[in-house]
Design goal:
It is a single chain. This protein is an all-alpha fold. The chain has three helices and no strands. InterPro entries: ACP-like_sf (IPR036736), PP-bd_ACP (IPR009081). It comes from Azospirillum palustre.
């Protein structure tokens, strides 16, 4: 399941970057969202979370914010019960 979530995150990040005229660098599980090489800001990240909820039917933040800084950490939130 983590691989499919990772692929979905990569797809959406690519779309977000392209919409901004940016090129998404190759993603790894260690790619950092806001302080790394990804061309996204906090609004883009919020958009990503909404799209993930719509496409997966899961909301790991329903009970409150859960800390994550990397693509791998976010993917893991969708593979364990929230």
């Amino acid at each position: 399941m983590t691989d499919s979530i990772f692929a979905l995150i990569a797809e959406e990040l690519g779309r977000i970057a392209a919409d901004k005229g940016e090129v998404l660098p190759p993603l790894t599980a260690d790619s950092r969202f806001l302080d790394g090489d990804l061309p996204i800001d906090s609004l883009d990240l919020a958009t990503l979370l909404v799209v993930l909820e719509q496409r997966t039917g899961q909301d790991p933040f329903r009970e409150g914010f859960r800390q994550f800084t990397t693509v791998g950490e976010l993917a893991a939130l969708y593979t364990v019960p929230a």
